[in-house]
Amino acid sequence: MKFFIDTANLKDIKEAQDLGVLDGVTTNPSLMAKEGITGSDNITQHYKAICDIVDGDVSAEVIATDYHGMIKEGLALAKLNDKIVVKIPMVKDGVRALKYFSEAGIKTNCTLVFSTGQALLAAKVGATYVSPFIGRLDDISTDGLSLIRDIRLIFDNYGYSTQILAASVRHSMHILNCAKLGADVTTSPLSAITSLLKHPLTDAGLAAFLSDHRKAAGN
Ligand code: G3P
After folding, report:
1. 168 in ligand 1 pocket by Cβ < 6 Å?
2. Whose CA is nearest to atom 4 of ligand 1?
3. In the prediction, which pLDDT does 219 show?
4. Which domains are delineated in the chain?
5. What is the mean pLDDT of residues 121-128?
C-alpha cells in the first residue's frame, strides 16, 4: 500500500520523505490556505517546491467547477511537473474533465467521493485515483471504511485500474484498516504515519536492553 501525506506543509513533507516511507502528497485548497499560500503565482511556486521534495505523485486541485475552466487549470498544473496529478471534484463537469485528461494521458485524482456510485463513475472515465473521504463519513456517524470495502469489491469485479486513494484519513487505525481492506493508497497527516511506530513493549524492551548493557559494562 502506498503512503501519501495530506498536507501543504513543506516541513512535514520533508520529514515524511526523509523517513523513507513517502509515496506521494495530496493537497487541497483548504490545506494551501492553512499554510497561508494565496495568489496563483505563490500557489504555483508552492506546488513546484512540493515536487522538488517528494519522490512521487503530487495532487494539485483545480478551483474551477465548469468543464472548460477545469481543463484550462488542469493543463497548466500538469505542465508544472511530471509528478503533478490533477485533482478534480466529483461533479458532472468533473466527470467530463476526468475523461478528457484520461484520454490526454494526464494523471487525475477524483476528489470529494462519498459513495460507490461516484467511485464507479470516476473509474468508468479512467481516473488514475479515486478519493473516498472516510473520516468525513465517520464524522456524520456513517462507516467510512465500509465505503472502501465496497469500492474494492466493485473495482475488482470489473478489473478497473483506478486506484483507491483513501482520504480524510485521521489516525493510524484508519491506515491499518484501509490496508486490510485493500486500499491502494492512504493519504493522512504525518502524525497518523508516525503513530504506526509506537508500541509500549518496544519502549519498555529498549529501556531494558540499554539498562542491562550499562549494568554489564559496570556503569
Ligand atoms: O485532501 C482531502 C481529505 O483528505 C481531507 O481530509 O481531514 O479535511 O476531512 P479532512
Report:
1. yes
2. 168
3. 73
4. 2-216 (3.20.20.70)
5. 98
